[in-house]
Amino acid sequence: MSKTAIVFGITGQDGSYLTELLLEKDYHVVGITRRVSTGNTGRISHLMDSPQLTLVEGDLTDYSSILRTIEEYRPEEVYNLAAMSHVGTSFDQPLLSFDVTGKGCLNILEVIRDHSPFTRFYQASSSEMFGDSIRGDGYQGEDTLFNPQSPYAIAKVAAHQASKLYRQSYGIHASCGILFNHESERRGGRFVTKKITKYIARLNKHLVLGRPIEEAPILTLGNLDAKRDWGHAEDYVKAMWLIVQQDEPDDYVVATGEAHSVRDFLETAFSKIGVENYMDFVTQDPKYMRPSEVPYLRGDYSKALARLSWKPEVSFDKLVDRMVKYDIMELGELKCQDSI
Ligand code: NAP
Ligand code: G4F
Questions:
Q1: Which residues does residue 149 pair with via DSSP β-bridges, in sequence order?
Q2: Which of the ligands is closest to the CA of residue 150?
Q3: Which member of 58, 107, 161, 273 has the lowest number of beta carbons within 10 Å of its beta carbon?
Q4: E-state strands within 129-259
Q5: What are residue 45's phi and psi, to 5 degrees?
Q6: Cβ distance 276 to 270 under 8 Å?
Q7: Burial of 105 per CB tally in 10 Å (0-12, 13-18, 19+)
Q8: What is the pLDDT of residues 56-109, one digit of tens each?
Q9: Beta-sheet pairing, 120-126 with 231-232
Q10: Atom 2 of ligand 2 has which residue's CA nearest to it?
């Protein structure tokens, strides 16, 4: 008998990759989608014909729709990937961020506690929860202190601690993946990596068409010195599934163990179209700076390696390469330059 999994956040980057993985494993996947005035199912359009996929309209802030869906489908597993996931936006919309990203998780936990205690639960926790906290050896691990630096991170800490509390107090199989930044061809356009690779595609087109360099588009960014531990989302959803399959629920850091600055990302991405002097095309605007920044994230994934046999497969260079190539192809029928 195939298992049933409910995926909150199925229309997002991770939701789409996780659904591919679960369908490959013969799950019945029930995806929760928000009713919006324009389409939000682009990332899962290639999966829509699967008889194993059911989409149900709902919202993480609406307890009643969560209750009805869990009661109807009696899932073996629930993955909570839904969130207002943009850190910068959370400074402008802190209350919404808390309602969705923090309290939304509690809505699911309460339904599981009262109506479906056998259901296993996965919470999408975040390295943002560490804020500016770093271990002596330069990594963040499962035991590193949380010191959140944004409304988003505060909400994620609340959801993380609630998941832990429901595990310890009510015996619910609730686990958290503390995932460091992960990107992909499907990354949302307002995150810095995708913003850069989409720009590279525009610049590449400009150069391939032989237009004057002085008329090249400019890329406007915020803080270039922050360092992130960037992996590929396809690798990270495998860790999510493995976490839920463990006999005992627990929390795991999922990362690559490498830190790169936004400048490193820029340099690597520009090099893919043969441009060395990338700062000629980049400007900074305070509107993209955050009131409080997380300066450095680098995860120690040794627990995931030891207990789940999980390790990242896609290197930093390969990640950038895949994103740049995809965006160049997306932009038009133009061929990539030879250097790509
Ligand atoms: P994403 O692409 O922004 O996807 C977020 C998903 O949440 C979308 O499906 C979105 O639906 C849904 N959503 C937002 N508000 C909702 C609501 N009120 N009710 C129901 N669904 C709602 O994010 P992602 O990169 O896939 O990340 C997945 C999860 O992992 C998020 O919780 C994120 O905070 C967390 N995380 C991400 C990273 C990372 O680097 N990607 C790292 C650590 C943790 P719409 O499509 O309708 O907007
Ligand atoms: O791409 P970002 O917006 O990702 P951020 O803030 O690290 O958050 C992502 O990763 C978290 C895990 O650590 C997730 F929990 C969260 O949901 C999300 O997926 O920004 C990365 C860095 C930041 O330091 C930011 O200040 O890039 C810097 N940055 C510089 N210019 C910019 C820009 N970020 C954005 N979004 N846009 C810019 O123009």
A1: none
A2: 2
A3: 161
A4: 174-179, 182-183, 219-221, 227-228, 231-232, 251-254
A5: -60, -30
A6: yes
A7: buried
A8: 999 999 999 999 999 999 999 999 999 999 999 999 999 999 999 999 999 999
A9: unpaired
A10: 191
